[in-house]
Write a structure and sequence with these properties.
Six copies of one chain form a homohexamer.
Chain A: E1 12-26, E2 32-40, E3 43-49, E4 65-75, E5 78-88, H1 107-118, H2 124-134, H3 138-146, H4 160-178, H5 184-193, H6 198-201, H7 212-216, H8 218-232, H9 239-250, H10 267-290, E6 301-302, E7 307-308
Parallel strand pairs in A: 3-5
Antiparallel strand pairs in A: 1-2, 1-4, 2-3, 4-5, 6-7
Helix pairs in contact in A: 1-4, 2-5, 4-5, 4-10, 5-9, 5-10, 8-9
């Protein structure tokens, strides 16, 4: 197939894409048309159906895979597809994995790295808890590997939750080596579970949007509930350890105004907060620089970093 | 017995009090003595044991009931007890209820009012949930009636949690009457449970202090967990309703910086936030004015209200 | 007449509306046209006059009542009126009350409720003061009943100031019953007057916009000045009571950053702040939900509540 | 008389001072004594009456002028008076002006400068308004010249309100010369009246403390009321000009969180805010440096300036 | 030449302007055109080249001086130039000074005033330092006189840096006269140098935009580095004085959140902060009022002043 | 010698300590005495000289090494030394290193680790710059190894600046490995120099207090000046690289309100900010837990972490 990032002005397209968005609109002159956004794993493409009688215009909905025929044009410096006709694609005609943004790293390889870190946990209760998710729960493992870590911002792609969790665990491994007063078992367990609530906060791809529960409760509290329910099934799990683990998850955003109902009160909670924040911000910066392509000049004001940003000269 | 609020300078005391605090200290001149705080339901009293050989000085600990003999003096405008001798009191010599601060209202009467409001809940799932706590769970009911709503600040007395919860429910009753778009059943249920986590956040009297879980998790999250666990035992409890109820509890502090991990997204969550805040602040203001006694002049800067405050002239 | 909320795409319209706004504009292609907003009591409607030679185009101004003929079309999901011809309507052709947003409640009925509450005031000075406005001052009463409580946001309709003031007084009645240390007379009087400055801060309908004084002084200070002037005409009005009443009005926004130059220092000022804030926010939430129509899904991010909001499921 | 700033350790004192404060206290060893603060125009002095039977100890109250006999000692680097005996002084024995902190500048001379600036006002209404206070109102003039501009902080001395007002007016004169778009008449009038509310916010010397009205209403609102009442007595005073003048007074603290209910919306309001803030802070800095005596080293953290401060080396 | 501020709708233009901006665009209907902004010292003008084959369209770039022929039209209330043909102008055809916004005051006259103030500096080291820039460094003087003080906001014109610096020095002269504890030499020197870093923070006209160094380091730190380098070349310059001068420059924004890494710790640093802030805000207010032309009504919400603003009525 | 951490109540002491503080004081009863703080590398000890005629009392000053004879007592739970006599110790009687708090790690070993990391820098200019400090400048190396990183808080001991710098560099090494878009050379160089300004901000041990320059300029700006001066001595050092390096140092506190005049605009500046913050906070937490000794209970409210903190249970 012809991936979106390879399209050039003037080309004629005849291929299948995921319809991420569609909405009826009217021009200044009163003419009806359709705004459409198409997506594959390499990016998104604005498209228009200018003719109200275009073939197939009434046959598809958002999140359908559609076969479109049209011409690539350019509008205000960005490419745009002028759709001539369209039809909903049949299952089997396409490979869903081609249409979703996906981690640059190999998902199974990352998961093996994660398992290797989890395998270092010695405490029998924490080991039993992490194994019950990351080693033996097939449904969880499948969902965890496929999920994103965000709707947009950082790690908003298939495998993003895994990649972020792995990065956080590796930072925690570094911290545990460097700051020996940290308890490695608690820190690793908290890191492994810190964002599992995102599996319920965001729907699976291709939708990848906030769920009702995500809006009402958020991934922090849902993560704590999920871990709490599992702990209750482990006989003899120490009460104090259970609260400490939940605290680390609750406090991992570091500040009340960032949605943590408690500030870090344990060293491991503080360390997890640093690991989470460091990886999230570094990845966000990486993505912001990447969106600038080869541009080595200033990229404009970035709201998250509250600064104009640019690539380094060397 | 001679209650603390009735003591006057110059009296000799010989009676039983609860020892709330004791600590060894040394004067500027190097002389050892003991700082003690005694308590009964009418207040607390600073006391000193100046003589290191005072009889009984080594026989009691914090939270013991003690029989003390001593003289009431005055230091910097406040009363102080100069303890001559002391002994630990025996069970049966005292009535614990006399030694704890307690609501001015009758506890059973308040509980009946609460039940009357809970009885108005129509939705079968919410009714089953509230009944499982407030009607049929004897241990919970006993603990709930005895608990305070705070370590200090507002409603920090036996029955305080009940009194505050009742006041919040009555405000919610008013709101549901006045603002008819509110769902009465959800609002009443959320109000009934909004602070139940305090039973685990604060230890029971006479200690009434933050627990380990209280520090690590807080009453908001513990309340949600408790309600969540009970909902799981009610077959058919609607998923969406469960999340809405938990959301109301999570959001009842109204702002992230006040410890709610979510801002109110439902009208009932907003209403609960107003009810909780109104009753907490009005009670705090009442207690602040009461601590000024008959003083009708300015009472000094109050940190919570960020203002000097005084009684109204009419 | 055909009210705006009943119009449907494709209809031809020939009726009178209030012209709320008009401005000349030019299309991308350089063609002149007119942007117009029409209003009746059920809502507003975007309209365009595409033909520069349309009949009557030069005959009307903002805030005129106009008879328009045109076709209802749809642009980006909202209705739009394509005006063919227009003329200024003559007095007598229309009923002004049909063209302004108005309270859903009966205005005279609300006023009677307000009088009943004011009638409970016992203190002779406060009674004389409130009567001099709400009972005997015909001009004031007429203006008060017709005014809105806001330019937009909450209670921005005819009768809005009355409805909000009544709701605040009823909340204060509840508080006075529930928190017996509050002085009922002071609280009721302060509630009755708390927003009277809005009569000068906002011009009367149909304009309902900030006045010069409103921008320079604001309704809080103008309300205090107005009350102060009236108090000076009441012989023997106690000095302290006068200051307490003014303080309640000054402090009713609760925080300096919300425009109150003093924080509440009296219990009644605090109670009034809660009543005002509760009613304003509950009404705003109600209006926000109502604007979503039958939509039971999330309604999008609400800036005031700093949250995505939605209707409750039960 | 022997002024406080001239006292030295080891001296015996026998002179009259103003008693600014007295309170009973008890030593760690249980001995009663009296804490007293004495004042004259050169400063204040901590004093103690160690002997409960000291002659005259029961004969005086706060704000009495007292004749004291005692010895000057040193405690933790500061002088302290060990009072042996005391009696209330008779009127005629002392000159009140000797006992109050007073401006270093000549009060009448400053007032003449102020009048010269006020005399430049050309607008007939503003001229009539300012004359009615600063030229013809004997009581006001007397009070204005004697008042302080603060309880402590800056200009907290007799003549302080005059000195601050004069400095603000002179800064406004400079601004009006430098920024010609400013209206000189409005700016001068606003400057003259900006702090007149302090005459009611602070009681007169020797008390110089917040009044009940000062706490409830503040000098900004009281100043506006005062000016408003006077304007009503001037026939034909333009409505718009009246609001502009009041706005300048309301907005002169510059920020809502500093107690101005409106931000400056007119250039003159902004200029007045700068003049007020500049003079207040420069005077406060001057007083902070002066309190360090000849110390050229760092003077410690200053809370207002949020910095350690010191004198400049050249 | 025909200055931009004199153009009227319907005129044909044939004259030279500075091209401040150009960018290709596409209409809703898919037609290519060019967006251009032209500038002379009286303002800027939006222009369009609708015909892709217009003569000269490929011959010019941003910051070229271009001769354009076209018609003045009106779009949404603002003038627009419809360019018919264009060519790059030759050097000698135009006078660069005609195309840049420039101070209303005479630059050489202002510089003489500045020199007169600098001439008052007595301290030999500070005198040597200021002379080495403002008296003997021809390149610096030329750049300083030509530079703006901002990209937009206040003093964003040729001579703006000089005008602002002079105004700040004159305010400092006033302060030094009025507050005699200020050291005049340090204050004048700090004022003279406080914004010299802007010569490196903003590129010279006609670009007048943030440089790479400006973004990375800012004018405050670059100013300190520049002064520091010069001080090292003056034998015997007192170490303490050097740090005090640098401190004044570092702290002149007054608050950490405004980019000063230190709060004012010296009286001169505080005074400089007031002078800088006063002149910047007064000039900004002046420019905001000026942009409203003869409009005496409210000019709309101003983000910097956080208020709707308007001209004063008298 | 007998180190302070080994002293027990009741012991007689006769040994040399560093006098960190002394001040005359007076008891409540008017008796003069001396407050003294003694220090060795294991901690500090409060001491008193109660007898004004104690031998040697007039012979020593702050920062002298003194031989004291006295008895160890206990006051309010802490040890106190009752000094009987004292004399200034002679050089040679003591080993200064015994009297200062010192890193637990071997200083030379840490320095070798630092050199190994610096040795990885490839860019010739950055290599030349770092070598000119860390490899060839003997005076700098000696001062750098001996300095603390703070007056108190974290790393406030001999070797603290080295230990913190090494930890930050190791974190940066980890980041550079993990986030490959970071430029390792720039990041390492910035990390090596980020706190060198502390050598001038804090005086050397035993004083270890803020210098005049530290107060006026701060270590961030002084570090930039120092690096800037060295860069000027390296021919051909790229201008852009110089600004990027300075930017990383300027921005390493991450927020304007923490004293950085610029927010991070480059990825390396952001990474350095995370490394600095992570190590500072983790070390502070470690020191806070260590100060609690074996206490496994809550340690009380910690102002920096805005939470009560405690050791983890496993």
């Amino acid at each position: 197939m012809k991936f979106i990032e390879t399209l050039r002005e003037g080309e004629r397209v005849g291929d299948i894409y995921l319809c991420k968005f569609r909405q009826a609109a009217v021009t200044k002159n009163g003419k009806s048309y359709e705004n459409v956004i198409l997506q594959d794993k390499t990016g998104t493409l604005d498209a228009k159906i200018w003719e109200p009688n275009s073939q197939g215009i009434d046959d598809f909905e958002v999140l359908d895979y559609v076969y479109v025929v049209g011409d690539v044009t350019s509008f205000q410096g960005a490419l745009q597809l002028n759709i001539k006709r369209v039809r909903k694609a049949n299952e089997g005609e396409y490979e869903p994995a081609d249409f979703l943004p996906v981690s640059h790293r190999d998902i199974d390889e990352m998961y093996q790295e994660l398992l290797q870190l989890i395998g270092q946990i010695q405490d029998p209760y924490l080991k039993q808890l992490t194994d019950s998710y990351f080693v033996t729960n097939e449904n969880f493992i499948k969902a965890f590997k496929f999920h994103s870590a965000a709707k947009s911002v950082h790690h908003g792609f298939v495998g993003g939750l895994l990649e972020h969790t792995l990065n956080v665990m590796k930072l925690c491994e570094y911290y545990a080596n460097q700051y020996s007063f940290l308890n490695r078992d608690l820190l690793y367990t908290a890191a492994a579970f810190h964002d599992v609530g995102k599996i319920r906060e965001l729907s699976a791809f291709p939708e990848n949007d906030y769920t009702d529960d995500g809006q009402l409760l958020g991934h922090i509290v849902m993560g704590v509930e999920l871990v709490g329910a599992s702990i209750r099934r482990i006989p003899g799990f120490p009460k104090k350890l259970s609260s400490e683990l939940k605290h680390c998850i609750l406090a991992h955003h570091g500040e009340l105004e960032y949605g943590s109902p408690k500030k870090p009160a344990l060293a491991e909670a503080l360390a997890l907060n640093f690991a989470d924040n460091t990886d999230a911000k570094m990845e966000t910066f990486k993505e912001a620089l990447a969106s600038g392509g080869d541009n080595t000049d200033w990229l404009g004001y970035n709201r998250l970093f509250e600064s104009n940003i640019r690539k380094t000269s060397i």
